[in-house]
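Inverse folding, one chain.
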């Protein structure tokens, strides 16, 4: 089985376990995300999995004046599915989530699994099968974390889905090194997520960040996996947990600019 399918199965099962621990009363509790309750997060995950299973987006137009947090095209798109489900009972949202996960699991495990196969992603955008699954692992894991943080629950287990999310964020280290830390050609960042990632990122003559062979780095940053997952997605975390060697100013710029979540 494609490892990304395995990761999606793990992270969706973990999300379901979290939702099972959320009381009906807590569906209306505020989350840490602007404008969304706990129930809205759960509805969001259900909505996207329903869409990816082949169902069209509902013909629904939210009252945007009452939703100032939906302030760009992407957030407005995802808000449609959430707002459509506002007013549903917790039981209805739970049922839809379970059915959507079951449908997607069957599609993913019985259908073609080539990572480079072109498929329709969120919003009808054509992407590779692998890219769609990586993005879904990223989204589902982080929203699991959001729910648990808002309700003071322990962080979710760092299973295959979390590994995929971390890898997706690590793909942006070149951008962070150049655009947010001001690295120039020849500058090298050594970024370590303990036990998970050992990335050497340099800058080419074209000014673009890219993977390079291990060598001498101007900055070395070492972090634990959960801290990286939080900082790399803009969740609550303390950059001071990172161990830094080398140029402290540039290291600080990397850590403060690490959020690459959409």
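Residues assigned per position:
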């Amino acid at each position: 089985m494609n490892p990304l399918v395995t990761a999606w199965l793990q992270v969706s099962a973990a999300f379901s376990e979290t939702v099972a621990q959320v009381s009906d009363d807590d569906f209306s509790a505020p989350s840490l995300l602007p404008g969304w309750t706990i129930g809205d997060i759960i509805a969001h995950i259900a909505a996207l999995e329903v869409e990816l299973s082949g169902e069209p987006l509902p013909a629904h137009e939210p009252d945007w004046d009452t939703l100032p947090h939906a302030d760009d095209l992407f957030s407005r798109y995802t808000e449609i599915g959430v707002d459509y489900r506002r007013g549903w009972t917790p039981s209805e949202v739970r049922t839809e989530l379970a059915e959507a996960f079951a449908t997607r699991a069957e599609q993913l495990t019985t259908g073609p699994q080539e990572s480079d196969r072109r498929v329709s992603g969120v919003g009808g955008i054509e992407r590779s099968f692998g890219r769609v699954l990586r993005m879904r692992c990223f989204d589902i894991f982080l929203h699991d974390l959001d729910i648990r943080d808002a309700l003071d629950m322990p962080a979710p287990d760092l299973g295959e889905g979390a590994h995929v999310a971390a890898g997706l964020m690590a793909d942006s280290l070149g951008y962070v090194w150049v655009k947010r830390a001001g690295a120039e050609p020849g500058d090298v960042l050594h970024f370590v997520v303990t036990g998970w990632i050992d990335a050497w990122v340099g800058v080419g003559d074209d000014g673009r960040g890219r993977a390079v062979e291990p060598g001498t780095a101007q900055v070395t940053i070492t972090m634990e996996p959960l801290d990286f997952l939080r900082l790399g997605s803009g969740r609550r975390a303390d950059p001071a947990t990172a161990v830094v060697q080398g140029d402290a100013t540039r290291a600080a710029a990397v850590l403060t600019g690490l959020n690459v979540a959409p």
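The domain at 3-166 is CATH 1.20.120.450 (Four Helix Bundle (Hemerythrin (Met), subunit A)). The chain has a mean pLDDT of 96.
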